Amino acid sequence: MIRLGLLLLIVPPLVMLGLYFWELADVRACQLDGGHWDYVASVCRDSAQEFAPWVERAPFLVNGGMLTSIVGLLLCMVGLAQRRQR
Question: Over the stretch 31-75, which tens digit does the pLDDT of each residue have?
Fold first, then answer.
């Protein structure tokens, strides 16, 4: 139970960080070319675009990842509590 809990606790934030830095690389490349990043369409444009936070663009990914991490934390706590009672 502890292994599953650790997996659920650690993997979702790593996936979200990976996707965040992947998008950040695209944003920086667009800015270096003199463009403006359109966060909603995920394309580089010539005119300035409004910023849209990640939680508005991918709420299932962000909220689901955080909920999965909380479930992983609870599984770790239950696993550790059961180990102590034995």
Answer: 999 999 999 999 999 999 899 999 999 999 999 999 999 999 999
Non-local (6+) Cβ contacts of 6 within 8 A are 72, 76
Question: Which amino acid, residue 27?
Answer: V
Q: What is the CA radius of gyration of the chain?
A: 19
> Model confidence over 37-47: pLDDT tens digits?
999 999 999 99
Tell me the residue range of the domain where 24 lies: 2-85
- Residues 6 or more apart in contact with residue 68 via CB below 8 angstroms: 8, 11, 12
Total tally of structural domains belonging to the chain = 1
